[in-house]
Known about the structure:
mainly alpha
Amino acid sequence: MSRLGSALFLAAALVAGCQQDLREPAELAGLDEAFFRCRVQPILVKSCAHFACHGDARRFFRVFGRNRLRYAQPEEKRNSLLAPVEGMHNFDSARAYVDVDQPEASLLLRKPLDVEAGGYWHGGAEEYGRGDVFASTEDGDYQTLLAWVRGDKEEATCVEPGSDQ
């Protein structure tokens, strides 16, 4: 086989091998938006959206919130209500950390949970001296997130705390 033929054969084999390893992107969990908006998002804003944590635009998982990180808002609007695009980003970002096959194993739950309670190492616990967000699975906020990843629903007309409605 000529050098060109060998190169073409190798290229074709690599492409075929790569195509076999391609996977469809995982679907985002089909979770209840109202439950998220009214019960989960306030927890994420309170516990995770600090500027030094997930309120930093450089983080892959980031949370927008009032007086926190904002999307395309001038400084004087930092305390305004969340824009729909910010709320949708928060919802999609959180859903991306939910394991639809094993909800209790979701990173959204395990990452902020203390290691001794079955969680994963969380950089914020050591770096900022805050400790893990949830000391145990009995924490009320943890239980709320757990209910959401398990599929609990909320009335669509619920009013998000702090929404001035």
